[in-house]
Amino acid sequence: MAAEAPASTPAIIETARAWLAQDPDPETQVQLRTLINGASDGDAAAIADLHSRFDTRLDFGTAGLRGGIAAGSNRMNRVLVSQAAAGLASYLLRHALPGVTPSIVIGYDGRKNSHVFATDTAALMAGAGVRAILLPRLLPTPVLAFAVRHLNASCGVMVTASHNPPNDNGYKVYLGDEFQGAQIVAPADSLIATEILRVAADELVPNLPRAGYETADEEVVQAYIAATAGLAHPPRAQVNAVYTALHGVGWDTTRRVLVEAGFDLPTLVDAQIAPDAAFPTVSFPNPEEPGAMDLAYETAREVGAELIIANDPDADRLAVAIPDADSDAGYRRLSGNEVGAILGWRAAALAAPNYDPEADAPETGGVPATDVSGTGAEASAETPARPTLACSIVSSPALAAVAAAYGLDFTETLTGFKWVSRAPGLIFGFEEALGYLVNPESVRDKDGISAAVALLSLVGDLKADGLTLADYLDRFSAKFGHFSSSQISVRVTDVSDIARVMTRLRETPPELIGRIRVDHIDDFRWGLNGLAPSDVLRIVLTDGSRVMVRPSGTEPKLKVYLDTHSNSGTIDERRAAADASLAELDRGMRALIA
């Protein structure tokens, strides 16, 4: 005899049946029918699964939507995406100028369902009265961000989950016009979310109007390629590099950019070069994750590569590795902070060509005497913004030291390129999670392809002068002091565990982290220095070290960022001192968050 179902079971079954009646996807239909039948028979696991899928809904926020592909309002699927598209269309129509037809350009990568989510969106947008333009094929996220501005679109949508697990997908939204193709921020996110919820409550997906849409010409892709290739001067020396796309969509566009810019093509990691939604050679398609770069290291050893470059699956991030005799792999992946610092140094030198590189940099300790509001407000016409370097609050203070030395403005922002890209006067921005913005005149988002071009240009110049990227990093430490950084990332199954840790740190603030005394703690919960409220703690130590603690915005993780700095002694002494402080902070923070 079947077990007696809980009192709530009829309601959740009815909710699931109502969803099933709207679902156009045979795969998720089968999932849902199986769960409904099991729940109707009193299967506790099926009932629990239905509650997991329907008790809540994937939130639409400044990161758009992102989640596992499956049936239910708390998953990514064609019903949820259709409701999102119809809600976004309603928002665009409500906010269009009188007599102006809003427009949207839609891109998609090689993940599961990316194409179908994109075409559903295009048809629904067109049916609602929005001019809908679909990019011609699967392409990197930076091409979509570029296309919003190039096509003068009101909005852009990129269907991607970037470097998330294989079964995830997502929906990133960009705004055009005065927002210049940047990702959405408040209040647009909540206004769009309101429209989506209205559609979900009042409309049935099969009844939403659909119409024919446009497909963009290849010209938009070629325009991106030309703009990105234009970042590089003719290479003074060619670099023996290895490239991997991690089963994503980066290679074809990257190849065309490199050819147009005059670079020799790199050796490819053949097993990872073609788009593959299953990501068969990696357990997690993120170049920061252990093992993700192993095939690239193997290929690099075979050809004696001077450099490894890797894009994540949608090519908005760039990973870099250099030869390292002390590493078992023979190569060391540089941190996002290291790459951000050296690309920032390159940008500063280009922006201030009369700066004397042999002059002593001011003793800033990594913190320049500039406004660090990070509000993203535009400079007025009377006071145009000076050239600005920008990074997120969890990224290394090294960029601030570069800005101070070159007399440039520096801006800290909240985490996310939706904030970094809005810094007034921006010439370069980065985020420690391998995101770099080197061409803000074309793309107002992180771009792993243009960053690769900038890096190859730098490495080629160094090679022509008899130097390596490792030498350049040493020069950075000699010039600005040595900055060390690392990260603690704790994945949880119960997200309430993260809230408990944040509450404990606020209610019982530590006096020591390891053996280093805490100077003060900044709580961003109510906003700070002009930044919007955010669930972030900044712990400043008496030795000048810094710890940032925050929940991840896209994954069930608690993230802790550790940064230290030393500008005393030789390069080796600076590195040793900074690394010793880093080890102490790591030990102390692991004990605090356990």
UniProtKB/TrEMBL annotation:
Domain Alpha-D-phosphohexomutase alpha/beta/alpha positions: 59-195, 236-321, 385-473
Domain of life where this protein originates: Bacteria
Q: Which GO terms describe its biological process?
A: carbohydrate metabolic process; purine ribonucleoside salvage
Q: Which SUPFAM superfamilies match?
A: Phosphoglucomutase, C-terminal domain, Phosphoglucomutase, first 3 domains
UniProt-listed Pfam families: PGM_PMM_I, PGM_PMM_II, PGM_PMM_III, PGM_PMM_IV
The cross-references to Gene3D superfamilies, in alphabetical order and at most eight, read: Alpha-D-Glucose-1,6-Bisphosphate, subunit A, domain 3 (3.40.120.10), Alpha-D-phosphohexomutase, C-terminal domain (3.30.310.50)
| InterPro entries in UniProt | A-D-PHexomutase_a/b/a-I (IPR005844), A-D-PHexomutase_a/b/a-I/II/III (IPR016055), A-D-PHexomutase_a/b/a-II (IPR005845), A-D-PHexomutase_a/b/a-III (IPR005846), A-D-PHexomutase_C (IPR005843), A-D-PHexomutase_C_sf (IPR036900), A-D-PHexomutase_CS (IPR016066)
Question: What is an example of a GO molecular function annotated in this UniProt entry?
Answer: magnesium ion binding
List the keywords (alphabetical).
Isomerase, Magnesium, Metal-binding, Phosphoprotein
Stretches for region Disordered: 356-381
Q: Where is the Alpha-D-phosphohexomutase C-terminal domain?
A: 515-566
Question: What protein does this entry describe?
Answer: Phospho-sugar mutase
